[in-house]
């Protein structure tokens, strides 16, 4: 289990798709397995794991394209909440 | 006399035994749930108790909500189905609507002053949601919706519809009041089960709604609205299925204790005992799966999605199986409206179809098997 946000997000995605070889900068949408079910799982995971609420206007594809971009979103939301 | 508030399984059971069980067979024959019961459900706070207190809800947790829906399902699947679709719409408003919309609709949804219904299936598309053809076209003032929805539970009675329609980029969820010009409701009658659920076919002909009628995000996460709404509907259907199994168990145990064969009660026969033991076991197993899905929802854990699929699959197949066995235990009596098992038998079948057919569920659950391999 990783301690960084990127690492935790990657662990989650790899857990859902064990066959995928991923790194933090890789576009998960380009791999072709993102559907509405996984999108919801991913958003719920990020909100629960990092204690943030993602507003509608942040639910954009660019915020979820890579583990790095999701970690940046978490960091931004955490700073707003602080 | 004012009806007591439903706050947990025990108070739900009391409400169901007092106000639903004695009348469920009559409503089934009549093909509708009466306004008197809808009013009593409002007084009891049954419609959307999970909404926050600021909107008149009770902030009920999901585990307790599942227990309440189970109890209602034990009494009458038609009433439970009205609760299910109202829950789906109310949750979607709470999760995705603007603060102004929540202020507008929340109190009415919590009190039952406005009943909601869920419009997804169409004449040519059910579990295959990608096949829907209803469209929502963006205009300068908002949206124009065109299409026909079918099998809308509660559609004959609902005041507001949650309509899923194809936009230029995705499938969007739209809040459409029943009295909007262009909305036409046609009752669907003489169905096999849940006969009092007031099904309707609803046509939307150039229905104009404001820009804010579209709930939730657009783009890749737009599907989350439908996924989340169906997840909660599936949870309620799973709960209702547990209720059917429990109803079959209680009716069958009572009948087997009273009915004699060769001077002995039916319950002494090993083959009857086998049926009853399976009912006891499956009711408990299904209830535990439901509670696990509810606990994960309360924790905001994404694992609730799969847990709910599994609970609904297990509980609905158990309901259909045990409703059949309950009729078998009752013999010819089970074929009559004198006992509730005939209604359970008819109601149970649709649980394997709605909120995602069991075939679709098994395909989804099979994906979990792949993730659990060493």
Automatic annotation (TrEMBL), chain A:
InterPro entries: ACP-like_sf, PP-bd_ACP. Residues 1-78 form the Carrier domain. It comes from the Bacteria. Pfam families: PP-binding (PF00550). This is Acyl carrier protein. It comes from Nonomuraea endophytica.
Automatic annotation (TrEMBL), chain B:
Residues 117-207 form the Acyl-CoA oxidase/dehydrogenase middle domain. InterPro entries: Acyl-CoA_DH_CS, Acyl-CoA_Oxase/DH_mid-dom, Acyl-CoA_Oxase/DH_mid-dom_sf, AcylCo_DH-like_C, AcylCo_DH/oxidase_C, AcylCoA_DH/ox_N, AcylCoA_DH/ox_N_sf, AcylCoA_DH/oxidase_NM_dom_sf. It holds the Pfam family Acyl-CoA_dh_1. Its cofactor is FAD. PROSITE patterns: ACYL_COA_DH_1 (PS00072). Residues 225-366 form the Acyl-CoA dehydrogenase/oxidase C-terminal domain. One of its GO terms (molecular function) is acyl-CoA dehydrogenase activity. Residues 9-112 form the Acyl-CoA dehydrogenase/oxidase N-terminal domain. Keywords: FAD, Flavoprotein, Oxidoreductase. Belongs to the acyl-CoA dehydrogenase family. PANTHER family: ACYL-COA DEHYDROGENASE (PTHR43884), ISOVALERYL-COA DEHYDROGENASE, MITOCHONDRIAL-RELATED (PTHR43884:SF12). This is Alkylation response protein AidB-like acyl-CoA dehydrogenase. The lineage of its organism: Bacteria, Bacillati, Actinomycetota, Actinomycetes, Streptosporangiales.
